[in-house]
Specification:
Blueprint: E1 2-9, E2 19-26, H1 33-44, E3 63-66, E4 69-72, H2 78-81, E5 86-90, E6 97-99, E7 102-103, H3 106-114, H4 135-142, H5 152-155, H6 158-162, H7 168-179, H8 187-194, H9 208-212, H10 219-232, H11 239-254, H12 261-267, H13 272-287, H14 302-313
Parallel strand pairs: 1-5
Antiparallel strand pairs: 1-2, 3-4, 3-5, 6-7
Helix pairs in contact: 3-7, 7-8, 7-10, 11-12, 11-14
Bound molecules: FE2/S2 (inorganic) cluster.
Residues 52-55, 57-62, 72, 74 line the site of FE2/S2 (inorganic) cluster.
């Protein structure tokens, strides 16, 4: 299959800005996208830069944007992504481009370091023993432990795009692997850190991270699990936990989200600096006619909503 590969190129030594270069390639049957990129480099242009190593979806180094979304190229069949005989390849997003398809992963790794990515347990154990865990307990961290650090989730995370301090889906998925590890002794301290701004509550649930994740790590699901841990372990004095509580209260009371109350309850009714911070947004909404109705009405089928809440509260 004759295919045009539009590859984003950038050489900081010669280019003022990035540009696309087209390569025509006969895609061999059964070739992965990484096979194609290798063929471009080996037969058409040896100056093309990108990362790769294992070619087996293990090392996590070959992720790049394919037709606008991050993918692990060695795990992607080229035939599956050819559209109108074309494939567009770009470097991962949310990171600075070093050259062509190679990005600077430093901020990504710095965030992983911030979550203390190792087991903390100072209980004495003989050097001949292991810290054993039941299969059930391992199951709680099994998904997160499949992460290969490819940064596909980080590349396409919409929160990271607007807030560079946000820990990001990858570091948070890695955090869940330790928060929910029954052998770790610092769950409380970990949750205190992760409940702060830039942590678990800053995710906006766009779902891109899980969509782009090539393994079972699925960061959004791991973030949701940690939110549950945070609420169950009393980490309630923060905007995120208050927001979740106010959200549930509002739906439970009227079946609708009371968008006038929600921001106030989220920052805290007596949190004056917080309230002052959100006031300009409120004023702008009023001026643009985007403010929700002042009088909040309940939906018609409230008894049904109440029944759902009751079922949740009293599981059978
Ligand atoms: S080359 Fe190792 S994951 Fe693709």
């Amino acid at each position: 299959m004759k295919t045009t590969f539009k590859v984003k190129r950038y050489d900081p030594q010669t280019d003022e800005e990035a540009r696309f270069q087209e390569f025509e390639l006969e895609v061999p049957q059964g070739a992965t996208l990484l096979d194609c990129v290798n063929l471009i480099k080996w037969t058409l242009d040896g100056t093309l830069s990108y990362r790769m190593s294992c070619r087996s979806a293990i090392c996590g180094s070959c992720a790049m944007k394919v037709n606008g979304h991050a993918r692990l190229t060695c795990k992607t069949q080229a035939a599956d992504v050819v559209k109108n005989n074309t494939v567009v390849l770009e470097p991962l997003g949310n990171m600075k481009v070093i050259k062509d398809l190679v990005v600077d992963l430093e901020p990504f790794w710095e965030k992983v370091e911030k979550i203390t990515p190792w087991l903390i347990n100072s209980d004495p154990v003989s050097p001949d023993e292991e810290r054993l865990q039941s299969p059930e307990d391992f199951h709680k961290i099994d998904a997160a432990s499949t992460c290969i650090m490819c940064a596909a989730c980080y590349s396409d995370c919409s929160t990271t795009e607007v807030d560079k301090k946000y820990l990001g889906p990858n570091a948070l998925a890695k955090a869940q692997r330790f928060v929910c590890d029954t052998r770790d002794k610092k769950q409380k301290e970990r949750m205190t850190e992760l409940s702060k701004g830039t942590g678990i509550w800053d995710c906006t649930h766009c779902g891109e991270c899980s969509e782009r994740c090539p393994t079972d790590a699925k960061p959004l699901a791991r973030i949701t699990e940690m939110r549950e841990v945070a609420l169950n372990t009393g980490h309630l004095d923060n905007n995120g936990a208050r927001h979740a509580k106010a959200f549930v209260e509002s739906i439970g009371k009227s079946g609708r989200l009371n968008e006038n109350e929600l921001p106030v309850k989220s920052v805290g009714m007596f949190n004056l600096p917080g309230l002052m911070e959100i006031t300009p947004v409120g004023i702008r909404m009023v001026l643009k006619g985007k403010n929700p109705p002042i009088i909040h009405h309940s939906i018609e089928k409230m008894p049904e909503v109440k029944k759902i809440f009751k079922d949740f509260e009293e599981p059978k």
